[in-house]
Amino acid sequence: MKILGISGSPNKNGNNEKIINLCLETAKNRRFEIDKIFISSLKVEPCKACGVCKNGEPCPIDDDMDQVYQKLKDADGIIVSSPVYFGSVTAQIKSLFDRSVLLRRQGFQLKNKSGGALAIGGSNNGGQEKTLQTIHDWMHIHGMIVTGDNNHFGGTLQKPIDSDETGMKTANDTIEKICDILDLMK
Predict the structure, then answer these.
(1) Where are the alpha helices (DSSP H) in 62-164?
(2) Which of 4, 28, 48, 149 has its CA 20 to 30 A from that of 61?
(3) If you average pLDDT over residues 116-136, what whole number do you get?
(4) Confidence at residue 125, expressed as pLDDT on a 0 to 100 scale
């Protein structure tokens, strides 16, 4: 089984990419295949609501989303991390979420995949739970199995993440729970 990690940060080598790499290392140690999407290395344009995908056609926007679609389809579990930008997810990850409507319209291709969320804010209580909710909403709309950290809603961290012991535990507990659910599904 495969777990896909998605960093929704436009910044290369930042806290979000670091936490996704750590989570994927945990999954790999539990013998899961891993893959990742770092939005910082991709061009994903916003959805234009043209409706072409309603008819089973590919999205007409020429960018990197085709490789994203394939990685989303291939995954059994998905963990998404976003920095908190003005109380929510980044515009870049929101574009990916909006464009993923093609997978919903063309057979609910993310249905029953296990998904978890991580959010990194500049301060404690800096909008992390609202950011998690946005990621969870995306997962619910796709019919995914939304997974928390056994206590709350997922990983809530404060930057720099290396100094946030409690936040790092919530992130680790979230990926462990995703792995547990996938183990149950084998």
Answers:
(1) 65-74, 91-99, 101-105, 128-141
(2) 4
(3) 95
(4) 86
